[in-house]
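Appendix B, Record 12. Input sequence as logged:
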Amino acid sequence: MLNQFTFSEILRKNSLEQKNWGFLFYQNKLLIKTESSSTSIPYFNSELFIKNNSSEGPDIKSFTNFYISFGMLKGESCFTGVLDSKEFMNDLNFEENVRFSFVDLRELALLVDKNMWQIASIAFELVDWYQKSGYCGRCGSEVFLSSFQYAKKCPSCGYLDYPRVSPSIIVSVKKGDKILLAHNAKFPKDLYSVIAGFVNPGENLEDAVKREVNEEVGIEIKNIKYVASQPWPFPNSLMIGFTADFDSGDITPDGREITTARWFKIEELPKIPSKISIARHLIDRFVEEVIKKE
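Logged structural output:
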């Protein structure tokens, strides 16, 4: 649950208040403020800027390709946008022990709390959608942001384009006191995780779990149970987490997505995903269950 954050009913493109939480991106990295050992999302007001030796701040709109308001945090508006260049940094008021920089979302997860990271993820997905949906997929006309919902509307044919959300399953498979972990070809060296994949059109979640496990590692599973879900912006996914038990077969990595996979006991776990991910939640859940049985 997002702490003190509520979605706006209306995406406001032409209304930007003096005081706002600013989730600003440059080359897919987010602007952050670091003061001493504390990292936060910048809260924009006139005191954050200097311009021509004046306390009056520059117009934020002049530095962005676009900006959209998408929610309220602690009673103040949240907006997101893409910066034209790093020249924006020149107008920030650099106080002693205060530094502004850009980080990607994975780095951010290590610097702020879970709620703020999730709000930043929402901003990232909205920015990604906004930049990729400039023209109507039906007739090719330029589309514009709707004034009352999360959508872009085509003025020619009326088609509505909403932010993409891709359902994906993720499942921890156990075999007694062992868990199945695999190394994906896209992972950093030595990182292992549970099996995951996108849901196909017309496919229910349970069938997607069975298919992905069979396609990627060649085994059959049973006792599929839902655990939890997590929005995941890499890319625009809704991860739907399950547990399952091994049924039959021998582990056979597909050689394309999965390079290696095997059963691990908790005392021999390899490098696993960070705690921001539902993958880690599923692995930690398995570890806790094994420890309780001992």
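Confidence is low (pLDDT under 50) at residues 49-57.
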